[in-house]
Each structure stands twice: as structure tokens, then as C-alpha cells.
Amino acid sequence: MERIIIDCDPGHDDAVALAMARGLSDKIKVEAIIATYGNQSIDKTLTNTLNLAQALKYDAPVYTGSLRPLIRERVAAGYIHGENGLAGPVFPPCTRYCNGNGITTALDLVINNPGEITFVSVGPFTDLAVCIKADPRFAKSLKRIVVMGGAINRSGNVTPSAEFNVYADPEAAQIVFNSGVDVVMFGLDVTLQLTLSDEIIENVKKMPATSYTPIFLAAMECYVAACKEYVHDYPSMHDPCTIAYLADPSIFEFERRSVQVDCKSELNYGRTVAAFPNGEGNVLVGVKAYKEKFWSLFYEALSRLP
Ligand code: RIB
Ligand code: CA
Q1: Sorting pLDDT into bands at 50, 70 and 90, what band is 278?
Q2: Which residues are catalytic?
């Protein structure tokens, strides 16, 4: 059983990642969900996280993470995810509440369970970086880190050089990639291989409905429309790659690299640069996804939702 902390900024693909983790509860135990700023400000991402936790009937408590990046000004992605951060679904009144500070909770959980906890980050890496800097025991106690972020052999999606989660806090990403902890990195090189389609949406419509089905369909309708307008393509399942990996690592292929983040230049601020592949380094960089295996796991996870 993979015991995880998931740090997210819902966000349409974050919402799919949370749903998949919930559906794959035979393989993944979500110990804590931390809402961080990212796609939108934390008040909005926290509201979305609480609504999703309620809709997905999560037992895991929800916490708040960082309000802003370590150094740079905060940026958002409302042009993709909408003004409220999760355009589309209309949720019923939410009875879930925030259980407190995600940073102190993550520190306690990881340090008190050495070698047990995987930290999954699918928004800016700020919370993870703060934990790493706050207590040296944290990095030593982590089982591993799994992140969605960066781009190695392709352009970014916010600037030609930078992917959003890293661009939102490059200094935090540099801390994480150089923490010495084993990192599994799902950058755009691999996440853009898993693009949604009308066929996939139609397949979900044909499945026996769960309470999540209308949420998924309403969210994806907006996510598809925004991505068609902004990137002239269907959206990709960026964040769900982290969950799919934890349930079935064979869905992906990797190269072992060391990764640095450009925190100095203007033009390439937030670019992730990997040393040439020589089998050394603490970062497994995702390079290939087996599409059929991924989408089969996606359907399986959604079919198991309560
Ligand atoms: O670049 C994709 C990442 O940025 C995803 O985590 C998405 O949710 C947005 O936060
Ligand atoms: Ca995200």
C-alpha cells in the first residue's frame, strides 16, 4: 500500500488525480490532502479541494498549504482553469472543513513514519520545499517524492522555457530536485502523451454513473473548451500521471537524470534542465507513457468510486 500526502491546486487535472487516488484505494492510501495556491489563489483551491473531498467521500483530512511562492510574485492559470479554479461543476453545500496547517502536518506525518510516506506534488512545489528547509529529518524520512512539473526535451506551457508548476515557484523546484531525495518527475515530455478525447469522455458517459460522473463531465467540458482556445488542443492528464505511476509503475518509462532549475535568467526563468543521460542522478524523468495501460487504469479507478 502506497501511503501518500497529495499536495494539489485544483485545477481540473488535479480533480482527476484526486478521483483516481480515491478509486485506487486498494493500492493508495491518501493520508492527507494539502491545498496550495497555484492554478488559483488558495482560497479558491481550498474551496475546490474541500468540495472534491466531500464529493469523493474522502476520509483523508484536508489542510491548507502555502499562500504564495518563496520569492517570486504569485502567478495563476485562470485562463485554463477558470476564475474559481475549477470551472464547470456546481457542488452542493460543503460540510467538509480545513483541518489546519498542511506544512506542520506533513512534517509530523513524514518524520514519525520514516521511509513510509510518498509526497505527491501536483501544483507548485512550495509546500514541499518549505518542509525540506524546515527540518532536515523530513527529507531523510521521505520514502520518495513524485511530482508533476517541468519539461526537459520540449517547450514549456507558460513560457517557451517553463512549465506552470515549476514556473510558479522555480526556487522551490530547485530545492526539491536537489534535496537528495529520490524524485519521480512527470514533466510535459510524458504528460502530453496522455491527452483527453471525445471518445474517452463518451466512454465515461457509458459507464455506470457515480456521484463523481457529473462533476467529471462538467469539469472536462470547461477544461476542453479552455484548452482548445488557449493551446488549440485537447487537455492532457498531467497530474493523474503521478497517481497512475503509484498504482502501476509499468505504465511509464524513465531516464535517471539530475535536474537543475534556471532561477537566474529572465527568458528561461523556471526552465528545468537535465544532465545528459548517464544513469546517474536522483531524478527519474518520465519519457514514455503506455497510453492503453493508463486509460485502462483511469476507467478502472473511476468505476470504483463510491
Ligand atoms: O502544467 C500543468 C500543471 O499546471 C498541472 O498541475 C495543472 O493543474 C497546472 O497546475
Ligand atoms: Ca495541478
Answers
A1: confident
A2: 9
pLDDT in tens, 51-88: 999 999 999 999 999 999 999 999 999 999 999 999 99
Question: Which ligand has the nearest atom to the CA of 272?
Answer: 1
Distance 7 CA to ligand 2 centre (A): 9
Amino acid at 139: A
| All structural domains of the chain | 2-303 (3.90.245.10)
Model pLDDT, residue 277: 80
Per-residue model confidence (pLDDT) at position 124: 98
Ligand number nearest CA of 80 is 1
d(CA 90, ligand 2 centre) in Å? 20
DSSP 154: S
For residue 229, the CA-to-ligand 1 centroid distance in Å is 17
| Closest ligand 1 atom number to CA of residue 13 | 8
DSSP state of 25: T
Which burial class, exposed, middle or buried, applies to 213 when counting CB atoms under 10 A from its CB (0-12, 13-18, 19+)? Answer: middle
Helix-, strand-, coil-residue percentages of the chain, each rounded to 5: 40, 20, 40
Per-residue model confidence (pLDDT) at position 96:
97
State if pTM tops 0.85.
yes
